[in-house]
Amino acid sequence: MSSQKSIIIIGGGIAGLSAGCYAQMNGYRSRIFEMHNLPGGLCTAWERKGYVFDGCIHYLFGSGEGKPFNSMWQELGVVQGRKFINHEEYQQVTDGERTLIVYADPDRLQAHMTELSPSDAKLVESFCDGVRRFATFDLAAMYKVPRPLMGLMDWLDFGGKNIAFAPALAKWALQSSRDFADKFQDPFLRQAVAQMFSWEEAPVMMGMMLLAFMHLGNAGFPVGASLEFARSLEQRYIELGGEIHYESQVEKILVENGRAAGVRLYNDEVHNADLIISAADGRGTIFDMLEGGYTNRKIHRMYDGHLPTHQMCQVSMGVKRDLSSEPHWVTYLLNEPILLAGEEHHQIGVKHYCFDPSLAPQGKSVIELIVRTNYAYWQRIYGRRVYDTEQSQVSDIILGHLEKWYPGIKEDIEFVDEATPLSYERYTGNWMGATTGWLLTKETIPMMIIGVPRTLPGLKDFFLAGHWVEPGGTVTLAAVSGKNVIQMICEQDNKSFKTSQN
Ligand SMILES: Cc1cc2nc3c(=O)[nH]c(=O)nc-3n(C[C@H](O)[C@H](O)[C@H](O)COP(=O)(O)OP(=O)(O)OC[C@H]3O[C@@H](n4cnc5c(N)ncnc54)[C@H](O)[C@@H]3O)c2cc1C
């Protein structure tokens, strides 16, 4: 009977845990195989010398009660009773003399940016109008029905309900932050606006959506940090009767008569099931675990390396200084570029986490510095002493700058931790250490709208979930992808989809 079917899920990140929870709610018997000894994948944090360094969520879409995506998090049981910090500012961008404060409130942002550059008032107004417009857009509605299940009528219904947003989407979806910044007359804003949403290729629409979510109180930071959040999802999965096997890395997906029939772990254990979901790295699943046997031109093209991904170095520090009076995130524009890991950098982002006192001992602070970097550079030097030297060089150079912005800080540093794209790759298996699957840009936004396939040609009983099927990633869309895959399985089994166990 279909209700007795068993499912194996590869990967205990947010997508795998979400798929597991919905599988249990819908009467399937699921098991997750996770290569690490912890849940969450990229949604993680690590404790060192009394400091908790967060590696993921700054903004959780769906954190606000009754707001878009919140009902999914309620179903997954991770928001009830959890405190979220809602920031009024996304970040600040400064050249040392002038500062752009990226307020989430579009009225405040408009007044502030207009004051910075009255001659750009019209441009600022159209941008802030975009934020106001997107504050009324129900992004979650786009994910109600999994894209592969959407028929013509669903698309017509979706289009009809959202027709009013078409002009805003047409105007902002295919414009990058850099394209937009270049339109400003003010030289400082031309630089600062390009960095406003962390990477220059970020579609302006994505940034507007983020500010709109923040303004609505629907993009909060979960107090206790990302690992706590992932652990509560793991807890929910276990309460629903799911099984999670840690330190169980899947080597191969076993195929019998054209259907995915089981998995073989690196320790040679074989486990069979009626259905297999991979919520692990997309490339590793398709080309390693399945040896590239179930692909087509489109899939090869997706993974040929031409699409954008995002890699970074994160330098985390524990400092014996209270930074709570400082802005929580500042991007410093540099007068002279600095050379880090073989590339010139024109800015450095500095975050502190004092808004969540549980992450550092009293009177002390966690600082994180983020620099975009090139995977190939780190890969070329991996395994040699120069890799460690390079990591400390990155920290040292950045620290030199930090000292200028926070005089005396070097003396206060108690602990430094460095992560490169290879750390992310080793820890989670993500191709090239990518932080969000495909990076959302003008190029990948059509993939986000149309949807990435969740099944493979010629392979039955197999599904893909996770941020490699939701361009732009995020913890929220990873969870949505897990939910969507179970909706697809229920549809295949002619069952109505349930969002609770009753
Ligand atoms: C620094 C940083 C900041 C971010 N900030 C935010 C933010 O503010 N808000 C937000 O929403 N998102 C943010 N993200 C993005 C978000 O973390 C990811 O998009 C999301 O967590 C992806 O979840 P996933 O389950 O699809 O993949 P993953 O987290 O990669 O999970 C995949 C899991 O599969 C396991 N696995 C891989 N291979 C195997 C195998 N062979 N066998 C068994 N297990 C395997 C891995 O160990 C991992 O646990 C951030 C990411 C980073 C790195």
Mind sketching the topology for me?
Blueprint: E1 6-10, H1 14-25, E2 29-33, E3 45-48, E4 51-54, E5 60-61, H2 70-75, E6 84-85, E7 89-94, E8 99-103, H3 106-116, H4 121-134, H5 152-162, H6 166-172, H7 177-181, H8 187-195, H9 204-215, E9 219-222, H10 225-239, E10 243-245, E11 250-256, E12 259-265, E13 270-272, E14 275-278, H11 282-289, H12 297-302, E15 312-319, E16 329-340, E17 343-352, E18 365-372, H13 375-381, H14 385-405, H15 409-412, E19 413-419, H16 421-428, H17 445-450, E20 462-464, H18 475-492
Parallel strand pairs: 1-2, 1-14, 2-10, 7-16, 14-20
Antiparallel strand pairs: 3-4, 5-9, 6-9, 7-8, 11-12, 12-13, 15-18, 15-19, 16-17, 17-18
Description:
It is a single chain. The protein has 502 residues and is α/β, with parallel strands linked by helices. The protein has 3 domains: 2-82 and 224-306 and 441-492, FAD/NAD(P)-binding domain; 101-216, no CATH class; 312-428, Alpha-Beta Complex (Polyamine Oxidase, Chain A, domain 2), CATH 3.90.660. It contains 18 helices and 20 strands. A 7-stranded mixed β-sheet has the order 8-7-16-17-18-15-19. Helix 1 packs parallel to helix 10 and helix 4 crosses helix 9. It is globular and about 65 Å long. Bound molecules: flavin-adenine dinucleotide. Flavin-adenine dinucleotide (FAD) binds next to helix 1 and helix 18.
Cα-atom radius of gyration: 23 Å
Instruction: Look at the structure and give the mean pLDDT.
Output: 95
Query: How can the largest sheet be summarized?
Result: 7 strands, mixed
Approximate shape: globular
Helix content: 25-40%
Question: Percent of residues in beta strands?
Answer: 15-25%
Number of strands: 20
Q: Which fold name corresponds to the CATH topology of the largest domain?
A: FAD/NAD(P)-binding domain
Name of the CATH class of the largest domain: Alpha Beta
Could you list the spans in which at least 5 consecutive residues all have pLDDT below 50? none
